[in-house]
Structures are given as structure tokens and as C-alpha cells.
Amino acid sequence: MSASDRSTLRAFSSESLPRTRSGAGAGSRQENASNKEIEPPFRFNRNGKGSRPAISAIALAAVAFGSMVVVMPDATSAEIPAIASRQRAEKKTFTDSEIADGFFKTAFGAEYHLAGRVDRIRKYDKPVRVYAEGNRPDRKVQLAKVVADIGQRIAHLDIAMTETSGDANVIVKLVRDRDLFRTITNSYGSDRARGIKSSLDPQCLSGFRKNEKFEIERSDVILAVDKGDFIFLDCAYEELLQALGPINDTSSVPWTMFNDNVSMGFFDVYDQYILNILYDPRVKAGMSVEEVKAVLPEVLPDVRDWVRKVNNLAD
After folding, report:
1. What pLDDT is attached to residue 285?
2. Fold of 3-311
3. Is the previous residue joined to 41 through a cis bond, with omega within 30 degrees of 0?
4. What are phi and psi of 223, to 5 degrees?
5. Domain extents for the chain?
6. How far apart are the first and last CA of the chain?
7. How many other CB atoms are there within 10 angstroms of residue 101's CB atom?
């Protein structure tokens, strides 16, 4: 394998079919999530990113009150009972140490990897353009709203839908559940697809490729469209956000959607802290844990201010 092959590495994550776990709250999910760093050659079926034909018609409304910017929740998501109940019960107040703990546990590492270093920050350093591939217009509308919501809530991330795959660096494949394994096989090859199926039984999957500078170059997401609105939105948010960099799952942080035992269906406040730290310009691709710790005291107050404004939180 050449030096360039060694530096062009991939990571992926997935969610398994939901089940009610004994002792857990109603609607909780028992998952076998995994995040993997894999060396090429490794086939991804592409849908790309690039120039900016953003789909503004579905962008979420932002209401300005002086210096206060409030992002209005998507009505469709809010009308889904499983999401609405979680939003009402959502914890929104966190200490600095609680935020930092979740960030370091998700932005560094990978639950399972075969090649490449996982002790560095991985993120996009360019605009992110998302292309949806599939024959479900309703799911494409929902996906576009998810992308718009993510863009409204991460201060320094330029993300939008695009109408052509050639302009995209994130490809989202919308498939029927019965076609999921075939799509994974076409994307990752039969050997790895069998391993994914036997260990994960996934209902959705995401992956990214990074370069030698740990900059993400491209991401691929596979979502099942016929498992219901809650599962679709839960998968869409988690897989899209993990495709932006925080690929590691953790079972020790109860507030993040990157916990195998947590289902959200919306972009929660805690994970907004994680993604806003990751995409702050002072946190750069390739940084080590110690390097991030050195800048975090400067970054966190600005992140807190942004998340407070965009969610209309109390001071």
C-alpha cells in the first residue's frame, strides 16, 4: 500500500434496529453502533459536494430580536409525538466539564478501526454540500429540513443541499430497508458488508474519508426510508452529524445522540455544543487532545453564547 493510500482513511458508523431495552424508558433504542477507520481500496458509491446551490425554500425560519437569533423548530418534527416528548424532557443546562467530556469522547477515537490514527480532530475545512439520491420526494424534503436545521445551529459550518451529485461532498442514499444490505454491499464490498450485517444489523450507516491532514474529503450516508418518521429523522440527524467528524460513540455520556442507548430525532442542545466546538475556526483538523485543551477555554464561552442565542436559552 502506498503512502498516499495510508493517509486516505475512512471511518463509518451505523445504527441497528430499535428495540425496547429492559429497564429503559419507552421508545429507547438498543443499538449495536460501531465506528470504523478503514484503509483503501474501499468503494463508496458517490454523491458529492461542491458549489452552493442551496435549497433555501426549505430552510428553517430564523427570527431576530436585537442580537438574539432564535431558530424555529421544524413543524413536521415537532408534530411527531416521540420527538415532541423528547424535546419537552430535554436537558439544556450543562457545566463546562460536562460539555468538554462529551466533546473529547466523541470527536476523538473510533469504536473500531483497522488503520490510521484516531487521536486527531477530523472535520471538513470547506463548504459541505449534501445530495440526496433516491425516489422518495417526501424523505428528500425531510432530509433538506434536517440539513437546514444543522446549518442554522452550527455557527461556522457552511452546509446546504445541492441538486446535483457532482457538486456534493456528502452523498445520502435513500433506500428501502430490504435494499439496505445490497446498497451496503455495492458501497463497501461484499466482505465488509457481511461483517457489517453480522455485527450491526444496521438500519442506517454513515462514513467519511479523510486525507493526511485529517480533513474530511467526502462522506456517504445510507438511510432506510420505510421504517417510520421517527427512525428516519433519528438516523438522519445522527448519521449526518457523525459524517461531519464526531464519529466515536460513547455509552458514558447520557445526553448525546452518539450514545447507543439514546434516540433523539432532533438536533439537541448538548450535541450542538459538541459540533460548535468542533467547527470553531480555532479547533483545526489534525489537532491532538492536548492542543484542543489549550484553546478550549477561549472557544467554549463563544460556543455557549451562540448555542444560548440560537436556542433562546436563559443566561
Report:
1. 97
2. Collagenase (Catalytic Domain) (3.40.390)
3. yes
4. -125, 135
5. 3-311
6. 53
7. 16
